[in-house]
């Protein structure tokens, strides 16, 4: 029988059997056919059924018991097969850099998501020289902790036309500060919490019938009141500070919390720095229109001798603030199902929050009383040593210390 007829006969037999052959059975069947053909049989079988000749020779070695697979249920020896794309390229690191600036999180959940589509990410990665499919990107994002999210409570208002440019501005400036070993902090106030024997969302393991009993109604305890946790998250160190306020959530409280972070943590890591970069929301106690916020930052800059750079997130994008999904989400997860009986409990639960990536948080009660409604005159505002950025100066500005 000539080679062409041999190939045709083997191909016909293979087409009838291939549906019931797994990888190992296919390899051994090909080796058996090659062995029956004698010299040159491996090449003939390789051409006939479309497997590499190396695979046929491997099957021959298995038939001759030169290669033994201890676990007969496996198709390959352990560690065999094509190596993962992740082990050969920097694709995961490049993917992380692409989505980092558009990562969003929920302070009540540790899940992450991004506003970039996987098809756009596929195009960007391929332009960077990677050969990757959209389906693989979905897998990598899942491995990195991202997940598909429902459309419940994701709309926060109208989209500003310069939203993306502001995100890119914050990302670029944050990267520049971190590379210079200058602090980049994300700040925000976590939602107020009732102190007392109240239900806290979530579930924890208890023995049957031993789950804690809590109050039926969430009426505020006049003696214990509420607390306002104001957080500072250090992007490069992956650690944070929380001032647990018992008074009003004002701009003065926000700046005092940043001052506490610097005295307790920041100065030890960035003692030689001459500047700080703050990322924050556009509203609330650290809002872009809050005059008291800027006046108190000027006081802080004077005290510390540091230039304070500030960037506010565009309207309707507060969930993209890093502190939400890098710190607050884990605090919520740590105290889920646990009644916040007293202030000490709040501090202990915040301080005990840890992650596999090494997050560490310190917390302390701020017992000062902060007055609401403090008015700042135009003259006080004009006296600030503030330099506004050409690109949205109301969002991006620097407050320098007065000499």
Describe the structure.
The chain has 403 residues and is of the alpha/beta class. The protein has three domains: 3-63; 85-143, no CATH class; 163-399, Nucleotidyltransferase, domain 5 (2-Layer Sandwich), CATH 3.30.420. Helix content is 40%, strand content 15%. Strands 3, 4, 5, 6, 7, 8, 9, 10 and 11 form a nine-stranded mixed sheet that branches. It has a two-stranded antiparallel ribbon with strand order 1-2. The N and C termini lie far apart (99 Å). Residues 107-111 and 150-155 have low confidence and may be disordered.
* Computed Rg: 30 Å
Q: What is the CATH class designation of the largest domain? A: Alpha Beta
Number of strands: 11
Q: Which architecture of the largest domain per CATH?
A: 2-Layer Sandwich
- Average residue pLDDT: 82
Q: pLDDT under 50 segments (min length 5)?
A: 107-111, 150-155
Write down the secondary-structure element order: HHHHHHEEHHHEEEEHEHEHHEHEE
Number of domains: 3
Helical amount among residues, as a percent range? 25-40%
Number of helices: 14
Rough outline: elongated
CATH superfamily placement of the largest domain:
Ribonuclease H-like superfamily/Ribonuclease H
What is the name of the CATH topology of the largest domain? Nucleotidyltransferase, domain 5
Task: Characterize the main sheet.
Answer: 9 strands, mixed
Q: Which strand-content bin applies to the residues?
A: 5-15%
**Beginning-to-end CA distance, first to last residue:** 99 Å
């Amino acid at each position: 029988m000539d080679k062409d007829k041999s190939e045709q006969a083997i191909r016909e037999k293979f087409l009838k059997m291939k549906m019931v052959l797994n990888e190992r059975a296919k390899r051994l069947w090909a080796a058996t056919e090659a062995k029956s053909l004698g010299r040159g049989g491996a090449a003939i079988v390789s051409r006939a059924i479309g497997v590499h000749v190396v695979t046929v020779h491997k099957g021959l070695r298995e038939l001759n018991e030169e290669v033994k697979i201890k676990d007969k249920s496996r198709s390959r020896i352990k560690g065999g097969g094509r190596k993962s794309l992740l082990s050969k390229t920097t694709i995961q690191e490049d993917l992380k850099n692409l989505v980092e600036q558009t990562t969003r999180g929920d302070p009540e959940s540790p899940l992450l998501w991004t506003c970039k589509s996987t098809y756009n990410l596929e195009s960007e990665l391929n332009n960077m020289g990677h050969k990757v499919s959209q389906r693989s990107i979905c897998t990598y994002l899942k491995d990195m902790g991202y997940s598909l999210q429902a459309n419940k409570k994701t709309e926060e208002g109208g989209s500003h036309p310069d939203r993306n440019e502001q995100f890119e501005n914050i990302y670029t400036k944050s990267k520049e500060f971190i590379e210079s070993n200058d602090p980049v902090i994300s700040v925000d106030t976590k939602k107020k919490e009732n102190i007392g024997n109240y239900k806290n969302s979530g579930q924890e393991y208890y023995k049957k019938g031993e789950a804690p009993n809590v109050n039926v109604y969430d009426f505020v305890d006049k003696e214990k009141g509420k607390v306002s946790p104001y957080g500072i998250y250090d992007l490069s160190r992956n650690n944070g500070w929380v001032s647990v306020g018992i008074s009003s959530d004002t701009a003065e409280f926000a700046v005092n919390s940043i001052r506490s972070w610097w005295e307790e943590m920041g100065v030890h890591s960035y003692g030689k720095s001459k500047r700080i970069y703050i990322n924050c929301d556009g509203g609330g106690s650290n809002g872009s229109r809050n005059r008291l916020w800027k006046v108190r930052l000027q006081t802080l800059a004077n005290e510390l001798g540091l230039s304070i750079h500030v960037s506010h997130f565009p309207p309707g994008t507060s969930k993209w603030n890093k502190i939400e999904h890098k710190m607050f989400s884990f605090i919520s997860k740590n105290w889920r199902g646990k009644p916040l009986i007293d202030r000490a409990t709040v501090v202990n639960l915040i301080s005990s929050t840890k992650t596999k990536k090494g997050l560490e948080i310190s917390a302390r009660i701020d017992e000062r009383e902060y007055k609401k409604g403090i008015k700042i005159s135009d003259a006080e505002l004009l006296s600030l040593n503030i330099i506004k950025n050409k690109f949205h100066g109301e969002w991006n500005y620097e407050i320098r210390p007065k000499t």
